[in-house]
Amino acid sequence: YFLIFAVMRLTKPTLFTNIPVTCEERDLPGNLFNQLMKDDPSTVKGAETLMLGEMLTLPQNFGNIFLGETFSSYISVHNDSSQVVKDILVKADLQTSSQRLNLSASSAAVAELKPDCCIDDVIHHEVKEIGTHILVCAVSYTTQSGEKMYFRKFFKFQVLKPLDVKTKFYNAETDEVFLEAQIQNITTSPMFMEKVSLEPSMMYNVAELNTVDTAGKSESTFGARTYLQPMDTRQYLYCLKPKQEFAEKAGVIKGVTVIGKLDIVWKTNLGERGRLQTSQLQRMAPGYGDVRLSLETIPDTVNLEEPFDITCKITNCSERTMDLVLEMCNTNSIHWCGVSGRQLGKLHPSSSLHLALTLLSSVQGLQSVSGLRLTDTFLKRTYEYDDIAQVCVVSSEVKQ
Fold first, then answer.
1. Do residues 156 and 65 make contact, with C-beta atoms less than 8 angstroms apart?
2. Which stretches make up the Trafficking protein particle complex subunit 13 middle domain (predicted)?
């Protein structure tokens, strides 16, 4: 071959560190090792025995490539002969388990390449797949005698997984959904977590619960330095609430619901950036049956044997119209005020109505609100609702 092909991965340099070698003064070397460390230009003055360094060193090997990082490589084709070659075409493809990508900056051929001259190119690719990747570099050219030449080189490397992401969903009494994302650093070096955010689906609004307000300033719950050490795990919490136009529809809260996706950005070593975006997260919404009853308002603390008001929301989650009758059954501690067995009227599918009720408690302590019954007169079916909320009952003297 007239041409020589070279490929080198472009990465940031690393901090050079020395392994400290020392001994006590009464040992045979005496103060020799300590003096050598002090004279070493790569050590930090005053901290020679610590594995700290201020000098940068170029990469000595290919290194690790993680999912979400940008793979950069320098490609050089050098004419090592004494003849001029013509029509040089350099092509670089990246072969993954699912696709083949062309990474060449230009597809045009170079007219000629003189002796001791070279053609340089830098390629970039954001890695989006785990597993084996093969960089296929091909060169074709024509010699002075008109002979067409062609050769290829293969460079194989593995793409590793940098983070382990686990999610948990918690369904509140209302339509709110709490998402806990556990993110673990499974690399061998610390990470600076630049951003961890949740992009909600079109049906939800999201509130991040990873900051606290201190003296009028919003600070991260993880502190000022958001470094994640190797094999450490951090929990992020988010609260999702359906938008008003979707909260009015009962169908939104039924079945499998798409929540959104996590967007994670981090930096490693000397600022090398990586980004991962999860697939759409889904949770199994709780089943409410045909009729859902939820509390909109209820006081935290009430006086013993004094009436108090609550507001209920009744939603028709079925696909048929209901004609509902409300019955209120007293318990040992909870007594309802009003007429039991009253007609609530017709309730169409996915519709809701608000109901104001009055009750009192005859027992002190934390009492459970129970005893509501809804009957659909069309199907003669009764729905029972117990333990729908708790209220603290105290003596009127204690409350004053």
1. no
2. 163-286
Kindly tell me if the per-residue pLDDT of 256 is higher than 80. Answer: no
Q: How far apart are CA 346 and CA 320, in angstroms?
A: 10
CATH class of 65-160: mainly beta
Pick the CATH number of 163-285 from 1.20.1050.90, 2.60.40.1230, 2.30.30.220, 2.170.130.10: 2.60.40.1230
The CA-based angle 264-268-272, given to 5 degrees, is 90
Phi, psi at 32, each rounded to 5°:
-65, -50
Task: Output the CA angle 44-49-54, nearest 5 degrees.
Answer: 25
Cα–chain center distance at 199: 9
pLDDT, tens only, 15-42: 777 777 777 777 777 778 788 878 787 7
What are the structure tokens assigned to 184, written together?
A: 């673990």
Which residues, in sequence order, are CB contacts of 396 under 8 Å at separation 6+? 303, 304, 306
Q: Above 80 in pLDDT, residue 174?
A: no
Residue 290 backbone zone (phi > 0: left; psi -120 to 50: alpha; other: beta): alpha
SS3 content of the chain, % helix, strand, coil (to 5): 5, 55, 40
pTM of the model: 0.67
For the segment(s) 291-394, the CATH number from 3.30.70.260, 2.60.40.10, 3.40.50.720, 1.10.287.130 is 2.60.40.10
Are residues 38 and 55 in contact, defined by beta-carbon separation less than 8 angstroms?
Answer: no
CA angle at 207 for the pair 202 and 210, rounded to the nearest 5°: 140
Same fold, 65-160 and 163-285: yes
The string of DSSP codes covering 118-157 is EEEEEEEEE----EEEEEEEEEEEE-TTS-EEEEEEEEEE
Asked if 302 and 361 count as a contact pair (C-beta separation under 8 A), the reply is yes
CB 130 within 8 A of CB 66: no
The token pair that represents 80 in the structure block:
């090592």
SS3 state at 251: helix
User: Could you tell me if residue 223 is left (phi over 0), alpha (psi between -120 and 50 degrees) or otherwise beta?
Assistant: left
Token pair for residue 34?
């300590």
Q: Give the span between the Cα atoms of 8 and 77, in whole angstroms.
A: 12
